[in-house]
Amino acid sequence: MASAATTPRNEALPAGGAERADLAAWLAVAAGTLGAFMATLDISIVNSSLPTIQGEIGASGTEGTWIATAYLVAEIVIIPMAAWLDRLLGLRTFLLVAAVLFTIFSVICGTADTLTQMIVGRVGQGFTGGAMIPTAQTIIAQRLPRSQQPIGIAAFGMTAILGPVLGPLVGGWLTENISWHYAFFLNLPICGILVLLLLIGLRHEPSRLHLFREADWLGIAGLALGLGGLTVFLEEGQREQWFSSELIRWMFAVTVFGFGLLIAGQVFARRPIIKLRLLLDRQFGSVALMGMVLGIVLYGTSYAIPQFLAAIADYNALQSGKVVLLAGIPSFLMMAFVPILLVRVDIRLAVGAGLLIMGVSALLDANLTIDSVGHDFTASQLLRGVGQILAMLFLSQAAIRSVPPAEAGDASGLFSAMRNLGGSFALAGIAIIQDQRSWFHSRRIEESLDANSVRVQEYLSTTAPSLGGPQAALRTLGQQIQGQALVMTYNDIFWIMGMGTFLVLPLVLFLRPLPKGAAPAAMH
């Protein structure tokens, strides 16, 4: 199924390349951009307030990753289906249904008092919000003449970049000044405005319900089961001792069965939900792998930084959100130069520089100490903002340009899925590394501390009177060990992300220059 961004219906396009779009067209573009912004904002809006949410719904730190992962996994499933759903229901009906359901699932999240209820709401948000991201590009392609499409593309690009960056700040401010529940209730007035813009800016199109039979149901079921099973397998495997757990064995079986259905869909479906054979193309395969690593760093750092600041520096949600926002400053400033960059800068140089900067920014965060606070992330966050726009901007163009025009939509959907899959892997990986490496570092520190050593005895004798006795001093020492082990664990996490970025750098050599004079292609 092609991405909606590349399947414009010709009758919806303004006649003539030089014609200017009317007010209704711009309102439609505003609706699409607003929907995409809301969807991308909600990817990370919980990141800075996760410690608060986890405490109120009774979830552990590692279980809290489900709140973020559930959204990303649901997005991976729905984005490739957007074009088919657009044709099935008509664009306006499809977006209206998505906006209303997104509102309902946001209320479910905002009123959640258990982890299960929260995950159900986040999955629903991912499905419906993910549907609004590629359709924003459809509106740009359909309603704007080619001469004005760069404006719409720039607006959409800004939402794709700034949404995940602003999420932790918005969620943090609401958590600290009102309540974390309003990080989800915020979507209600936004959805109300979105529905109004859709009704004014888009005309009704008849549904084509006969297309229901054409769906790649094997692929859809396989994608949902495969990704769902894989997510549970990775998230719960460490806690359940992997294959010693019956749950993990079942999830492994579900994963294998699901991906088997997905592969069967590649063979039997007329239009597979995702054309996996595109990965065999040398250039597109390289782009997809670099996109996955990009997703790991983007979503991994935006999740790990707030968690570190909350656990080590005792930052509240708003303070953590401000630190994450720093990455959006250079991205916002550079968006004005997007058309120039696409024309003047060689794609290999741009992607290479972007990935190199992303890797360096991650390694800068791999030297944290127990005394590290928000300003210690300033340089890395600013660098990350430059790197992410260079890498994301040019990789998104390369994904579409590396395949024939007829398959550009499939390439767009697959690239988006790979990037989100990288983010899902990052969040699951962080949970696994936290469990394993925290234990490892704690044991190593404890092994270096001889209970009978002079330094340990001096510490206990010095601190015991002020803390209320030897037992209190021992507990304090244990807390300090845990704190140091956690810092070392986060250093491991950032080091892995940095080195992973460097490992895919040679793949830029497989990229081909973008066509001269070609208009930028919009995609998520």
- What is the C-alpha radius of gyration, as a whole number of Å? 24 Å
Query: Percent of residues in helical segments?
Result: over 70%
In round numbers, the mean pLDDT is 84
Indicate the proportion of strand residues. under 5%
Distance between the termini: 16 Å
Structural class: mainly alpha
- Number of DSSP-assigned strands: 0
Largest sheet: none
Shape: globular
List the uncertain runs.
1-18
**What is the number of helical segments per DSSP (H or I, 4+ residues)?**
20
SSE succession: HHHHHHHHHHHHHHHHHHHH
Layout of helices and strands:
Blueprint: H1 23-44, H2 50-57, H3 65-78, H4 82-89, H5 91-110, H6 115-143, H7 149-177, H8 182-185, H9 187-201, H10 217-237, H11 246-268, H12 282-311, H13 317-325, H14 328-334, H15 338-344, H16 347-364, H17 378-401, H18 408-448, H19 454-467, H20 470-504
Helix pairs in contact: 1-6, 1-7, 1-9, 3-6, 3-10, 3-18, 4-5, 5-6, 5-9, 6-7, 7-13, 10-11, 10-18, 12-13, 12-16, 12-17, 12-18, 12-20, 14-17, 16-17, 16-20, 17-18, 18-20, 19-20
